[in-house]
Records
---
Amino acid sequence: MEKIVTALWGVDNARLLTELPVALRAAGCSGIRINVRDRAVEAGAGLVQKWQDPQQEAVVQYWLPSANAIFRGDADAAIAAVSERFHAWLVAESTIIANSEHPPTKGERTWGWSQASFITFRSDLSHAEAVAVWHSHHTRVAIDTQSNFEYVQNLIVRPLTEGAPRYGAFVEECFPIEALTDPHAFFDAVGDQAKFEANLNAMMDSCGRFIQFGRIDIIPTSQYDFG
């Protein structure tokens, strides 16, 4: 099985959440997850970091026995039918924190909100060096300094569509809804200014060690799992 992450532009959320899961299952896909920018996460606009202009409006994640183009055609056609354009990447998934606190219900919005992050690695590091920092250092920092109750890393193996932005990874983290607007809630430091400052500084320092700022797209989303 191979996992595919797809960014979509020009979408109708209603069609995306009703028509696309059915079409993807008919195309042989499983583990279907759709992340959408909607009214439920509008308050988190201040968390957006933008490289692409216009920026992606939704993310579709799914698994196929093979991501090879000759076996992916029906899935691509299903996504094209509900968007103006899209780009896709083959990824290697690593679940750092599984969502056991607020497990999703099939077809329903997951509790809280999901931060969907497309990141690019620093250009002055080799790919191996950047991944080593991400996996061996930053992962622990992200666990220890945030209120995330789900944390999934997706290392991009290769782009599947021509002209796809050259990201290095896609990361998804779920947070309590309060973290949309309260930095102290985001950094697991409600009522503790010293802890907030320590966690914020640790996170920013760690991100700077491997991420190429200015070439990232970070968006707040609502998460839907369809199995």
---
Amino acid sequence: MRIKKIFTIIVLSALLSVFGYNALADEPVHPQLGAAYVKLTDGTKSFALSLSARIDDKRVNIENAPLTVFAVNETGKKQLGRVNTNRSGKAVLNVGPAQALPTDKEGYYNFEVQYAGNAKIGNATKMIHVRDALLEMSFTEKDSTKNILVKVMETNNKGVKTVVKEVPVDFYIKRLFCLYRFGGEKTDSTGVANADFPKYMPGDTTGKVVIVAKILENDTYGTVELVRDYKGGIPLVIEHKAKRGLGDTDAPLWMVYTLLVLLSGVWCHVIYVISLVIRINMAGKRAGQDA
């Protein structure tokens, strides 16, 4: 009897395990939704989105998944756009500056990113809570020291611009393949952060460089960037190297005369050899006739 009970318990445990595994297999996978907010120079609000899930203990990027972005406030929510993820599970949605966006009572933008899910992958939601920051850039020069100044402001509920203190601002110069960081500090009591421009930074032929100021992943403002051209670099001097060839008129006269003499000698030898061949041929024909 005891053996039968043990056998029954084992069978029931196996059946419960199988049913439990199948139940878990039928449940949709919980995805991970990522969203980052960036305000560009022209006022465009850009959302960098990503979607992935852990399947069989591996992180898999979800391709061709529709992601929708809403602007939310107390009165409801407004759809800003929809975009599908690429092969890497990433997507970018840009909202132009002309599009009016609702804010809450405290002046914050509340963005909601949604993935509706399907039979295999569950739904997901991500919230972004940011205020709108305004950047202004100016340039000064004193005693051969060039300075870049950035003023950070925000608009209050009454529509008045107020300065923002103690916000980190990073300064970059846009190079061919990267951004070269040359300074960074927090804004002062007037909302201004500044950095000294590198003295020996090369620019284009006019000395122009591209300055990029950024607030990076701030808890209140997200990422905000401002791009401006600045003619403060060292102008690039392009040296035109003279190309020398055998037929160039810019070649020195001694080289021209030497070349003419050498070529003349070669052609004289060629003509002399040809004349010898002709004379030998003619002499052979005469010798044959005399014989």
---
Amino acid sequence: MSFAPPSARRLLPDLLLLIVAIIWGGSYLATQDLAAASSAAAVMCARFVPAALVLLCVNFARPRVRLRDSTVPGIVLGTLRAATIALETIGVTLTSATNAGLIIALSILFTPMLESALTKRRMPPSLIASILLALIGITLLVSGQGFAGFNLGDGLMLVAAATRALLGVAEARFTVGRNSDVLGLTTVEILFGAVIFAIWGGNSLMEHIPGFSAANWLAIAYLCLGCTIFAFLGQLWATKHTSASRAGMLLGTEPGWALVVGVLLGGDRIGTLGYVGAAVLLVATWWGARAEQRWRGSGLARQNVTATVV
């Protein structure tokens, strides 16, 4: 029996999505350090394969294993997830960190556009304005390092922003209003990615394992347990209890958290303009979350009226 007040239950998905964004923000620094000691392919393999094994053990320990019901949607989510991570990993090595952060942030805009097209409901002006304000905030936040001309890496990041938006919408379609098995879906999703990344980076990982330091193993644990198992489960559960657009808005704060981690742990500096951008991003996120809630509420009310008439 839950003793949490209704308001706390409503806030839980938002809080969880923000925690996921913070965890993913810290993944940049962990990934860079681990990739420097091995390779990008090895990092992806080290992140996904142990996570898949852990989740398989958890599933088989359950009284009733439901992976069969999650196979098709899990493979769809796994395909989009693997594509997004691969595009981001390769793209960020071919462009500047500033360009990469700005372009991947476009998923904040792409997600509600896709959801609006699928639901055939026009986005309200307040939601559009909050999204544009969030993009302005991210621009100010990461602009301290300067911008570079558009190149192949930027193109890959743009495709990654689109696949990330598709992933968010697909998660909502498979979970919202359905009796879906979040653990089963996440397990199949990660298992699919583990197979892909084991083929891609397995040899590289085995080659570099003997030279890993204690810090490298801690980075693997962080990426595996925090950025993959907890974050994927948390994102899917929270999306099930909210919407793709709201999840996209909250997860879109990830570049900001990445810079916060860089300032606190990596010694980076963002300057006055960066702090202004952070403030703008916080305001835009708060505004966008309220606008999305009203938009989603109006949609539910319309569905109820239609159901009553029918």
---
Amino acid sequence: MGQKIHPTGYRIAVIEPWSSRWHGGKRNFAKFLLQDKKVREHIMKEYGSAGIPRIEIERTGEAVNAVIYTARPGVLVGRKGIRIDQLKTELQAICGITVHLTIHEVKRPELSAGLVAENIADQLRRRMGFRRAVKKAVQSTIQAGAKGIKCQISGRLGGAEMARVLTEREGRVPLSTLQANVEYGFVEAHTTYGKIGVKVWIYKGDIDRGKMIDYRALSAQGGRFERGGRGPRRGGRGRGGSQGGRGRQ
């Protein structure tokens, strides 16, 4: 199961909070869902250079509250707040009602799966060696305090005629454990040889039963999770040791 299901969707309402929080009923559900999709796509397309791993959307009767997590808030806000005012105007045109923006800085981008995947994809676009890019990302994430990371890139690596898959893993990544906080990120790198998919799983520790991840508090703390009161536990299918999957170093 751990190889087939999205890690975030698997943990929704257990330890992972919903990224869109509102109630639209049968009449407005489809419209609000489409608006959320357009808002996220617009922000990532026009302001993706600010390093945005997560966007949360909340709705009230009169306004839409968009919470944006970014590793480079200065790029998103712009000089004297020009870019953030422009973004607010564009989002109000999409939603048709008042939009309030809240910016949260990601203190430790090395612990964000989306930002790590974007970093690897950016290096692949600049024709850096794919093995070096993946190993460097794995080392920096482990040094930042993660308990485990798994990176997988697939496509015409290095311009090869046949597509293949490269996987690098260090530490534990228990994909089948619901209480394990495993963050997942996926980015496509558009190169001269075609698309290269980059997937990243980062395991940050266990969450106590009955509690949810608070991303706003974590952005202020730097993103580190502490293990709950239980003892150590094996990873999914017993392959989550420091030696990597299936006995490979």
